[in-house]
Amino acid sequence: MLQKKPGQRLAFLAHADVLLLAETLVAMANGDGGQIVLGLDEAGHLADNIWEEEAEAALREAARTCRPPIPTEWQTVSTRQGELIGINVPRSPELHSLDDGRVLIRSGVNNRPLTGAEIRQLAANKNTAEFETEVVPGAQPDDLDPAIIDEYLNKREARTGLSTSSRSQLLFEIGATDRSGQPTMAGILLFGRNPQAFLPQSGLVFVRFPGTEPRDADGGIGYGRRDEVSGPIARIVERAWNILLEEMRVGAKVNGLEREELTEYPRFAVREALVNAVAHRDYRINGRRIEIRMYSDRLEIISPGGLPGYITVDNLVEEHFSRNPRLVNGLYQWGYIEELGLGIDLMIEEMVQAGHDPPVFKALPHQFIVTLTNKRERPMIPKWTRSMNERQTRALTYIQENGSITNREYRTLCADVSPETLRLDLVDLVDRGVLLKIGAKKGTYYILK
């Protein structure tokens, strides 16, 4: 725990502050849930020793200010320095607020108040959040594939170290069945023998066009390749990924004595866009499957359903909200999602580092489109930039193309970011030995060290 950093689903509170605790409870319950650890400061250092009675009193007071009440669970957090108090906050199907009327959401390490429009959008999604746990009409327990369930359990145990003696209890706990063992929507999508028999819209279609338009090589209506992908969602990801690998052009570059294979698009960026489409699409929409369209100059991944909750294109990188939390958790246990909430950042970094333009995200009322372009418009950026944020990566790209960068030029590159944040970005790069600062005051500029 001391090595983890606070973020969307993890908060460190140095003191048993009632107001901050209440705000964090509401913010996490409105999002994807999370864990609050008492007795650690924001840097993960041990702070004041908080006694259990003190924590219990603070939680009781904080709970009184939450509307409606938020269920929580205590958990002992063991560290080398001793045991700390943890509070697990589940994702809630209800919309929660504080008694002063504020509706908060977890945004990075902060608890952000939502605007009126965001509250209405989140409330609408909360009302439909239990679609995953609805029993599938006509489905029976033997419609779940034991081999797929065994594979999931093995992956889950390898990832978490958790094992279970009761398969039926686990399937109920993860929302795959109801208490009587009947398959739910999530259960059929995760473990179904033939999910498309019950949810025809849950498949995927891949189409390859030879040019830049949806036409065949002769200019007529047609395509070069078309595949329909079906099965439970883990198989859909696996099969679609294999098709994409077959279709992506492969090149190479030589680093020293080693030959490095380069695909047409960065592998992580493609896989992340694919997994996000499968995990976050709106499965209530009938008649539309996920579509992957590969053109000669771009790759489009089209997911039915608009952005969920309070998510917009503008806050897509900083915020995270799962329309289908049980499916997301299933793909996480399978290993297709590395760390919750970080994929979009890394997708952008991978594209920029490979010399491509960043991905283009387009949100429509009933679909979301991610477009990756394959034209390398700028030099590739070294792998040692992977620890940098997307703004810093853009600054390095600019320096590679122009030789240097000034504060004014950096502000132009990132016009929607505060000057102080951008100044700290450059200071960080200087401190890490990446950039060299030249000049002073208004004559300051930066070059690659």
Describe the structure in your own words:
The chain is of the alpha+beta class and about 450 residues long. It folds into four domains: about 110 residues, 2-Layer Sandwich (Methyltransferase, Cobalt-precorrin-4 Transmethylase, Domain 2); about 70 residues, no CATH class; about 170 residues, Heat Shock Protein 90 (2-Layer Sandwich); about 70 residues, Arc Repressor Mutant, subunit A, CATH 1.10.10. About 35% of the residues lie in helices and about 20% in strands. Strands 10-9-13-14-16-15 form a six-stranded mixed β-sheet, covered by helices on one side. The chain has a four-stranded mixed β-sheet with strand order 1-2-5-4, with helices on one face. Strands 3-6 form a two-stranded antiparallel sheet. Strand 1, helix 1 and strand 2 form a beta-alpha-beta unit. The longest helix has 15 residues. The two termini are about 35 Å apart.
Secondary structure: elements and pairs:
Blueprint: E1 10-13, H1 18-30, E2 34-38, H2 52-64, E3 66-67, E4 73-79, E5 82-89, E6 97-98, E7 104-107, E8 110-113, H3 116-127, H4 146-160, H5 167-173, H6 185-191, E9 204-208, E10 225-229, H7 233-247, E11 250-255, E12 258-263, H8 267-280, E13 290-294, E14 298-304, H9 325-334, H10 343-353, E15 360-364, E16 367-373, H11 390-402, H12 407-413, H13 419-431, E17 435-438, E18 445-448
Helix pairs in contact: 1-2, 7-8, 8-10, 10-11
Short structural summary:
The protein has 449 residues and is an alpha+beta fold. 33% of the residues lie in helices and 20% in strands.
